[in-house]
Design a protein that fits this description.
Layout lengths: L2 H9 L4 H9 L8 H25 L4 H8 L3 H9 L5 H11 L4 E6 L2 E6 H5 L9
Antiparallel strand pairs: 1-2
């Protein structure tokens, strides 16, 4: 490892630019950078296409979805571009476009299909809270 990176670890703190420079100087650190960047960009494109595609299948515009969600059109645009979403945001979006969603949980050989609504607002037995 680079000398300045080791010094920064021992002292506890170093200017962030020095730390990045030390990390960047490590042999092989950027060997697959281009592939990682392309994979990240592809995931982003698929995510954007995913939510926008759901909206388009519902024959709705961002303005339509925004009205149903009670938010501005720009909020819907940002939601469609986000790399990650809260389940409650995803549920609100799907509800606005008239879609139902389920999540498939797989642990070992066990597979369970759970409605998204149940994950956001779990049902309580016997109507208790």
């Amino acid at each position: 490892m680079s000398e300045s990176f080791m010094d920064a670890q021992q002292d506890g703190f170093a200017p962030i630019d020095d730390t990045f420079a030390a990390l960047k100087s490590l042999p092989g650190i950027d060997d697959d950078l281009e592939e990682r960047m392309e994979a990240s960009e592809q995931m982003e494109r698929e995510h954007i296409a995913g939510l926008a595609m759901v909206r388009e299948v519902a024959a709705m515009t961002q303005d339509d979805v925004a009205r149903k969600m009670g938010v501005a059109q720009g909020s819907v645009s940002r939601l469609e571009r986000r790399g990650d979403l809260l389940l409650s945001s995803l549920r609100a979006y799907f509800k606005a476009v008239g879609a139902e969603a389920t999540i498939v949980l797989k642990i070992g050989d066990t597979r369970r299909v759970v409605p998204l609504d149940d994950l956001v607002e779990p049902r309580h037995p016997s109507g208790s809270h």
